[in-house]
Amino acid sequence: MSLYFLYCVRYLVFCVLSYLFGCYHFLMNKNIYNTECARLSLAQGGLLQWVSQCRYLGVYVLSGRAFRCSYDHNQCQYFKAFNVIFCKVGRYASEEVVLNLLRTKCLPVLLYGVEARPLLVHDRKSFDFTITRSFMKLFRTGSVTVVTDCQKFSHFYQSITRHSYGQKIPVQ
Known about the structure:
The protein is mainly α. The chain is about 50% helix and about 10% strand. It has two domains: about 5-70, no CATH class; about 70-165, no CATH class. The longest helix has 19 residues, at about 120-140.
């Protein structure tokens, strides 16, 4: 028997388990995450799809040698929520009101699932960039130093770092 065949049989067991739980695609990982496997047919006539990411409880798990998560969907949903709030009350309400809405309504959308694993440096920078762009739009500036000062004075940056370490966000 070839090694390729043994890998496919090994994953067939997991495919059966995924079928029992109603999942018709399977996330490849470990040493053969980038190996092309043959498509397997199910009893109902469908084909099992091999995918590079899988959504479980709203967290996107990526295939690879190590456990990784993708937060791109969270960022898209965050920008949707921010744009809705900003379009409805952005220029009419004060910055404090918009920041409070941003902290209570948009930030949980962005940081959903970050407790699944420790954040990588790349993920932290991506979250910082997302929030910095929101502040740039809110305060009508392109300067990162102005945005950093606004985050410090509004205690917004401290609440993000506390939340990303798993501590509770203080209510103000």
